[in-house]
């Protein structure tokens, strides 16, 4: 059984003549413990799928399942303990007037944990931050450190599924690899299942086992990361993305 399953998912905004179809009949499955990537240009519907999964977009049709259990408009009580999301901008997703201790403590308390002090210390250790960071505010942290706090907050309820919405795109290039390596290590040590959105094919190739390519709200191709690395796509749009990711190629220059 797939850990996460999407069948014929459509998501839209507005009604009647103002309706915009952001996702159209998307289907894919993510096995337990796997990392699945959604790639495509901005506006292709990638992040909308994540937001629909966590209930931030109420207008959708089709099926979304976790462990075979179909999600309805109202998420079951244990959903947010099992499924957590890491957003693109770590500064915007953290309360500017809450210390790291408050951010993690409130999350743990919300999910009914009692040994909060010990858990905060362990979470900080797990994401590579020491006790010195515990009582700092977000503005006192670097971008990479803030994203580590956001990851620790997502891990606090002990989920089995993490939804990653461009988790490194707002970070300096110098720290992107560190955060990606942290996420890869956490998936292995905690047996997590990832659904990751990214426009960066190099990130997806590093993190994911399989990818779905989206164009204008539709999934045009699902392929293994090895096929992506081998440059053997089936769809022209996927080929365009892969070739674009290779950068400028002098061999294609038109002679004057």
Proportion of residues in extended strands: 15-25%
Q: Which CATH class is shown?
A: Alpha Beta
The outline comes out as globular
- Which structural class fits the helix and strand makeup? alpha/beta
Helix tally equals 10
Oligomer: single chain
* CATH structural fold name: Rossmann fold
Largest sheet features:
6 strands, mixed
Helix content: 25-40%
Number of domains: 1
Strand order of the largest sheet: 6-7-8-3-9-10
Low-pLDDT runs: 248-256
Number of strands: 10
> Compute the gyration radius: what is it?
19 Å
Describe this protein with a few key phrases:
256 residues; alpha/beta; Rossmann fold; six-stranded mixed β-sheet; 25% strand; disordered C terminus
Would you mind describing this structure in some detail?
It is a single chain. This protein is of the alpha/beta class. The chain has a single domain, classed as P-loop containing nucleotide triphosphate hydrolases (Rossmann fold). Helix content is 36%, strand content 25%. It has helices at residues 46-53, 79-82, 90-93, 100-110, 116-126, 143-155, 173-190, 201-207, 225-229, 236-245; strands at residues 4-13, 20-30, 35-39, 60-66, 69-70, 83-86, 161-165, 193-198, 210-215, 218-224. It has a six-stranded mixed beta sheet with strand order 6-7-8-3-9-10, sandwiched between helices. Strands 2-1-4-5 form a four-stranded antiparallel beta sheet, with helices on one face. The longest helix is centred in the last third of the chain and has 18 residues, at 173-190. It is globular and about 50 Å long.
């Amino acid at each position: 059984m797939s850990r996460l399953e999407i069948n014929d998912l459509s998501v839209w905004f507005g009604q009647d003549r103002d309706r915009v179809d952001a996702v159209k009949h998307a289907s894919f499955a993510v096995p337990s413990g796997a990392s699945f990537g959604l790639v495509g240009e901005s506006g292709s519907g990638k992040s909308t799928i994540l937001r629909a999964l966590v209930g931030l977009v109420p207008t959708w049709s089709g099926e979304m399942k976790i462990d075979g259990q179909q999600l309805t408009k109202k998420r079951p009580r244990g959903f947010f303990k099992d499924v957590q999301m890491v957003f693109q901008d770590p500064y915007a997703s953290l309360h500017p007037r809450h210390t790291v201790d408050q951010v993690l403590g409130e999350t743990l308390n919300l999910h009914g944990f009692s040994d909060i002090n010990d858990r905060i210390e362990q979470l900080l250790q797990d994401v590579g931050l020491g006790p010195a960071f515990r009582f700092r505010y977000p503005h006192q942290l670097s971008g990479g450190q803030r994203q580590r706090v956001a990851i620790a907050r997502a891990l606090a309820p002990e989920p089995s599924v993490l939804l990653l919405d461009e988790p490194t795109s707002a970070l300096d290039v110098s720290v992107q690899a560190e955060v990606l390596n942290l996420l890869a290590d956490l998936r292995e040590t905690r047996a997590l299942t990832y659904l990751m959105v990214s426009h960066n094919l190099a990130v997806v190739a590093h993190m994911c086992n399989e990818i779905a390519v989206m164009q204008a709200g539709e999934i045009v191709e699902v392929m293994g990361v090895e096929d992506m690395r081998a440059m053997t796509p089936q769809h022209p749009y996927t080929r365009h993305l892969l070739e674009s990711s290779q950068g400028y190629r002098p061999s294609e220059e038109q002679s004057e």
